[in-house]
Design brief:
Elements (H helix, E strand, L loop, with lengths): L1 H19 L7 H13 L2 E5 L4 H11 L6 E4 L6 H12 L6 E4 L2 E4 L1 H9 L3 H8 L1
Parallel strand pairs: 1-2
Antiparallel strand pairs: 1-3, 3-4
Length: 128
């Protein structure tokens, strides 16, 4: 009985956090940091280590170049804030979030579409 009560309390706290938590707001400093990465890194990928779409994106890009700058948000102390800054900049909340030569490409499906059209490699080569 006690275990069920603990489980119920735990589930309620999870649901409250999911539905009623205030969104993380990106500070001006973090937003500037992200904008600098987008501007200064020819290929910038915001990723998460456990994400299968990120893994596919990284494999596709690394088959063309090893010079991509990959930021694994789940290993950064300010990863959630960086992801919020990316959302504020691009309108995309998910990862991977890919930029080539300062241009927002989008996510994995966008990158794979460019690749299948034969446009990804020339875009990457031009950025480097």
């Amino acid at each position: 009985m006690f275990a069920y009560l603990l489980l119920a309390v735990f589930m309620i706290s999870i649901l409250k956090r999911f539905f009623f938590a205030s969104p993380v707001m990106a500070s001006a400093e973090t937003k500037s940091k992200v904008q600098a990465l987008i501007k200064n890194k020819p290929i910038f990928i915001a990723s998460k280590t456990y994400c299968p779409y990120c893994t596919k994106t990284k494999a596709t890009v690394s088959s063309i170049t090893k010079d991509a700058y990959i930021l694994e948000l789940d290993t950064e102390s300010d990863g959630a804030e960086i992801q919020e800054a990316l959302y504020e900049i691009t309108g995309q909340r998910t990862v991977p979030n890919v930029f080539i030569a300062g241009e927002h490409i989008g996510g994995n499906s966008d990158l794979q579409a460019l690749n299948s059209q034969g446009k990804l490699e020339p875009k990457i080569k031009a950025a480097l």
